[in-house]
Structures are given as structure tokens and as C-alpha cells.
Design a protein that fits this description.
By secondary structure, the protein is α/β, with parallel strands linked by helices. It has two domains: about 5-185 and about 305-390, Zn peptidases (Aminopeptidase), CATH 3.40.630; about 190-300, 2-Layer Sandwich (Alpha-Beta Plaits), CATH 3.30.70.360. It is about 35% helix and about 25% strand. The protein has ten helices and 16 strands. An eight-stranded mixed sheet has the order 1-2-4-3-5-16-6-15, sandwiched between helices. α1 (about 5-25) packs antiparallel against α3 (about 110-125) and α6 (about 210-230) runs antiparallel to α7. The chain is elongated.
Length: about 400
């Protein structure tokens, strides 16, 4: 079956919600207006329960089917959308662009939220399923681990969630298409903060100092050898040093240099290996250069791993909505990170990609969520519930 006709009728409303959210972006956990907007809609739809303040500013709606799912292995499924925006100055020029300078929905979370609201409206209206559908609106996906915060506040146990599903739009994929794969789909993300302490001196007398810039440059190069020489060429790992600051003038070798970066891998076992090698390389460069190097290695989002059975369910559901020819079961893994990984560690589930058409890339100031994709995403959520919890 293609997109749900009733969802198509909702399309103007869902689009209006999306554009309202787009015009009022909020960051991290400070999504109070967005959360209030979501909670108000869920109450209007007649959800059986609406809970706010989970994971600081998360919102959860419970929609009960026309009958309970007694005796079944799966009684409750969770559907998750993220609500937060990015600290990016918008350059789309659309009539509904951000009203807050320096903040914009540059990743499509406005669309994710609106699509799940559309599905919630339909599910609350029809209730053509047996069991409970739990719609999860999460803050702080963009670096704040909002998923982990909601889980810590009891999300999975409080609402007795058996399976959980997520979705993200992908620029460059055709609208109406989906892609997924079993196993690792998105990378872990660990943060590096490095301080190289040397000994400042006059630029004309470097022998009287210990140059932290030279040591830092050697460290950047040495860290790249981890990927090229310590990691199996058939595995995936990325080490990126994205910030290097030292000194303020032309004739002084500074006392210290500071660097920031990330480490990303697609398998948990590689995470341990790369961390160990980073620590060893830092220690080795420090000894070789006579500097003192402080390393703050902070583990962030885990690898996002799709569970086999739930991946099959998601794949079949997407094919029902879009047609099998528009759904790939061999999505190329992405080295970006996604905190839905925490939910997949807590419960079986799957994360799927949905086409956003020929748009600017994610996190780009000219990016905009494609409203034509709304009916496909909302229909996917509806069919996922009705197919997993048949009435």
C-alpha cells in the first residue's frame, strides 16, 4: 500500500507545524517552546497519556490501540523523533526561516517532529492496532545525549517499551525512498581534548625552549598513523583533529598548544583499540619531544547497531509504503554519530534513513527539510505500528 490517504489529508497541517517549528529553533535541552507545542498537539489529538519533562525537556505520548495486546511478545513499541536545532545562522531565504539569529533547524529535526506528530494524530484517531504506541520527542540529540537522559529518567521501563524505532532524513536520497541495513549503521563518537605543555622562548633562540607547536604537529601526524597502520584496512575508523591553537605573535614560541578532535568507529571492539593507541601515541610523542601532554579522552555516543529482526520489520514496512524498488537493505554506513544508539542499546529496534531529495547537506546553512517527504515518513510510522501490533 502506498502512503496513507488520511495522512495525505493531514499534509497541510503537518507542513504548517513543521514550518512553525522551523521558524522557532531551540538548542539542546532548551527546547521549552518546542516541547510545549508538541505536548499541546498530543493532548488535542486525544492521547491517553502525555508526559513532559522526561530527560529534562522530553515529551512522551501514549496511544492505546482498540484492544490490548495480551499474550503477545510485543505489546508496546516506541517511535522517536528529535526536537533540537543547531547553532547555525540560516541562509535559506524561505519565508518561514529562523527568527532567532545564530540558530536554525539545519538537520531536519523540525521535519522529524512534525512527521511523528502527524502519525500520532492518525493513530489516536483510528487506533487500528492492539497494544500501545509510545511517541517519543527527544531533546539534545545534537551533542547532548538527550536519548540517554530520557532512558535514565525511566523511558523504557515506565512505558514498558518492547521495541523502539528511529528515522533520519538524508539529503541526496530521492523523496519517497528509504534505506537501512542490519548491524552497525552509524559510528560512535569520542572527543579528544589535548594540551601540549612545552617551554616558551624567543623565536630566535628555540634551543632554550621546548616547542609545543612542533610537538603538536608531530602528534597530529602520528595520530593519523593509527588508522593507516593499527586498524584493519577492512574496518572503519576516523581520527580528525579539528582545532589547533597556539601562540599569538610572530617572534615568541608559546608555552602550550591545544587541540580538539574526534574519534569515530563502526564496531565497539575497534573503539577500545583506537583509544588504547591514541593514549600510547600521545605518551610516545611526549617522551620524544620533551613536552608534557595531557589527553582528555571522552567517550560519547556509542555505535548505532540495528537489530536483525527489527531491521526486517522496518524494511518490510518501508517497502509497503514506498514500494520495494524504492527501499534499500544495504544502506552505506555513516561515520556521523546519532544518540538513538543509546535507545538501541536499551531495547531491540532499528533506525532507517528517508530521502530528503536534492537539498543542501545536513548542518549546512542552506539546508531545509523537504515538506514533500512528510507523507512518506508519517505513513511509515503508522504502518510500523499497525503492522507490528495488528488489531
Amino acid at each position: 500500500m502506498p502512503i496513507v490517504n488520511r495522512i495525505a489529508e493531514f499534509h497541510p497541517d503537518i507542513t504548517a507545524w513543521r514550518r512553525d517549528l522551523h521558524a522557532h529553533p531551540e538548542l539542546m535541552y532548551d527546547v521549552h517552546r518546542t516541547a510545549a507545542f508538541v505536548a499541546e498537539r498530543l493532548k488535542e489529538f486525544g492521547c491517553d497519556e502525555v508526559v513532559t519533562g522526561l530527560g529534562k525537556t522530553g515529551v512522551v505520548g501514549v496511544i492505546k490501540g482498540r484492544k490490548p495486546a495480551d499474550g503477545r511478545n510485543v505489546r508496546t513499541i516506541g517511535l522517536r523523533a528529535d526536537m533540537d536545532a543547531l547553532p547555525v545562522h540560516e541562509e535559506t531565504g524561505v519565508s518561514y526561516q529562523s527568527t532567532t539569529p545564530g540558530k536554525m533547524h539545519a538537520c531536519g529535526h523540525d521535519g522529524h517532529t512534525a512527521m511523528l506528530l502527524g502519525a500520532a494524530r492518525y493513530l489516536a484517531e483510528t487506533r487500528n492496532f492492539a497494544g500501545d504506541a509510545v511517541v517519543i520527542f527527544q531533546p539534545a540529540e545534537e551533542g547532548g545525549a538527550g536519548a540517554a537522559a530520557m532512558i535514565k529518567d525511566g523511558l523504557m521501563d515506565r512505558f514498558a517499551i518492547d521495541q523502539v524505532y528511529g528515522m533520519h532524513n538524508i539529503p541526496g536520497m530521492a523523496v519517497g525512498s528509504f534505506a537501512i541495513r542490519q548491524g552497525p549503521l552509524m559510528a560512535s563518537m569520542d572527543k579528544l581534548a589535548i594540551r601540549v605543555e612545552g617551554k616558551g622562548s624567543h623565536a630566535a633562540m628555540p634551543h632554550k625552549g621546548i616547542d609545543p607547536i612542533l610537538a603538536g604537529a608531530q602528534l597530529v601526524t602520528a595520530l593519523q598513523s593509527i588508522v593507516s597502520r593499527s586498524v584493519d584496512p577492512l574496518e572503519s575508523a576516523v581520527i580528525s583533529i579539528c582545532s589547533f591553537h597556539a601562540g599569538h605573535t610572530t617572534n615568541v614560541i608559546p608555552q602550550a598548544a591545544e587541540m580538539l578532535g574526534t574519534v569515530r568507529v563502526l564496531k565497539p571492539k575497534m573503539r577500545d583499540l583506537v583509544q588504547q593507541r591514541v593514549q600510547e601515541v600521545v605518551a610516545g610523542v611526549a617522551q620524544a619531544t620533551g613536552t608534557t601532554i595531557e589527553l582528555d579522552y571522552n567517550r560519547g555516543y556509542p555505535v548505532l547497531v540495528n537489530h536483525p529482526d527489527q531491521t526486517d520489520i522496518a524494511l518490510k514496512t518501508a517497502a509497503e509504503v514506498a514500494g520495494a524498488s524504492n527501499v534499500s537493505d544495504n544502506a552505506v554506513p555513516i561515520m556521523g554519530a546519532e544518540d538513538f544508539a543509546y535507545m538501541l542499546e536499551a531495547r531491540p529496534g532499528a533506525f532507517i534513513f528517508m530521502g530528503n531529495g536534492d537539498s543542501a547537506g545536513l548542518h549546512h546553512p542552506a539546508y531545509n527539510f523537504n515538506d514533500e517527504a512528510i507523507v512518506h515518513g508519517s505513513s511509515y510510522w503508522v504502518k510500523l505500528v499497525e503492522g507490528t501490533l495488528p488489531a
